[in-house]
Structure to design on (291 residues):
């Protein structure tokens, strides 16, 4: 059993076909088939059923594959450790963080990193919707904090990080805020929903909490969105930590909108599985994990 054979098995399972696995690994389809067959012969287990168009893991194959993915992850981590032992600190580290999350906890970690590795330039960008995952997959971010929406989980390592509560709100004088009953979708369609634009290119578009068929204004960031809503010019969902003071002061009120209850947005810290992690990025990753 070899490391390469396990990589071939993972490629077949995650891509769904021998042909797609061959394309991903830049090998011939016959070579992929031969390596898998050799692995099955060595361990005397049929890992994949070939009875249908797409190969499927057998019952024994599922158990084996679960352990194989752990071994592959450990091998990658071991390789990173070996490289870090002889590597110098990176010149730059790129972080991309969803705009729904407060920066303070991250700044504490970044402060530690800059004190330990002062020669490394930290780049921190605030992104919305598909922006963080797109940056990660394009190699423009070493670590991101975001939801896993649109993330190919076979290509990223993801660890639960935090939850942010998104609350639909409006100015107390805005008509929907004065309705003591639930505002229906049809009623809300005549009021302006303020949304933050996706900072990604649109190749992996995401859309959350968008009222179908309603009036809509799009802004670049949550600060602008909050200001517009505070002026009584629209409504929309905002992270709880950004508006708690305004809610307590009565300047904003939560809305009761059909199909739009307060939502918990679950965030993860993520990095690419197939990319080496430098010593500074590893330092930040471990501090975020501990935090």
């Amino acid at each position: 059993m070899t490391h390469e054979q396990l990589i071939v098995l993972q490629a077949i399972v995650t891509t769904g076909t021998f042909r797609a696995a061959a394309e991903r690994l830049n090998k011939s389809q016959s070579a992929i088939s031969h390596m898998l067959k050799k692995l099955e012969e060595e361990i005397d287990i049929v890992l994949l059923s070939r009875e249908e168009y797409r190969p499927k893991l057998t019952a024994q194959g599922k158990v084996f594959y679960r352990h194989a993915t752990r071994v592959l992850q450990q091998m990658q981590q071991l390789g990173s450790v070996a490289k870090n032992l002889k590597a110098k600190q990176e010149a730059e580290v790129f972080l991309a963080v969803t705009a729904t999350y407060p920066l303070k906890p991250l700044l504490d970690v970044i402060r530690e990193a800059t004190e330990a590795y002062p020669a490394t330039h930290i780049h921190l960008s605030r992104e919305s919707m598909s922006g963080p995952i797109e940056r990660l997959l394009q190699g423009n971010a070493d670590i991101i904090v975001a939801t896993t929406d649109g993330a190919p989980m076979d290509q990223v390592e993801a660890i639960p990080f935090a939850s942010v509560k998104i609350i639909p709100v409006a100015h107390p004088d805005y008509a929907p805020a004065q309705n003591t009953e639930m505002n229906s979708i049809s009623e809300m369609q005549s009021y302006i929903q303020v949304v933050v634009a996706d900072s990604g290119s649109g190749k992996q578009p995401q859309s959350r909490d968008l009222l179908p068929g309603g009036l809509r204004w799009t802004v670049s960031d949550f600060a602008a969105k909050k200001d517009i809503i505070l002026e009584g010019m629209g409504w929309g969902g905002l992270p709880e930590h950004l508006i708690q003071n305004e809610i307590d002061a009565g300047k904003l009120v939560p809305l009761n909108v059909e199909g739009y209850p307060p939502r918990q947005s679950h965030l993860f810290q993520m990095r690419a599985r197939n990319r080496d992690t430098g010593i500074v990025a590893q330092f930040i990753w471990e501090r975020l994990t501990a935090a």
